[in-house]
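agent> Task received from the user: take the single chain below, predict its 3D structure, and emit structure tokens. No templates, no multimer pairing.
agent> Plan: (1) validate residues, (2) run structure prediction, (3) serialize to tokens, (4) report one or two observations.
agent> Step 1 OK, no nonstandard residues flagged.
tool_call: predict_structure(input=
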Amino acid sequence: NFTYYYESSNVGVTATLESFEELSDIGLTKNSSLEDYFKAVEESNNKTYEMKKSSNGKYLYFDYSATLSGKEFYYITAIYKGKTGFWLVTYFCESKNKEKLTPTMLKYADSVEV
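)
tool_result: status=success, residues=114
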């Protein structure tokens, strides 16, 4: 259910666009903030995340770990506001590579234009 999905041997990226029209059912509009959408993501996932602001101020993000098919993965999910909706972009790698690849994933997040 991703708008985009990319995977290399070390890092994967998923991107999902949720339009303002789709989000209107939960009260989000083009006037909603990144913080509003962040709260909606938490509610949708029934989880609480530590909200972090990007160094360039263009997005909010949170990180977490999860096990999938017996492997531990590390995720960074960035939230961007575009003209037609909010983008949820998740970067992921195996947890054993977290320290090495986190700077790369944040660099990728910084480069996104919506």
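agent> Step 4: summary for the user.
The first helix runs from residue 20 to 23.
agent> Done.
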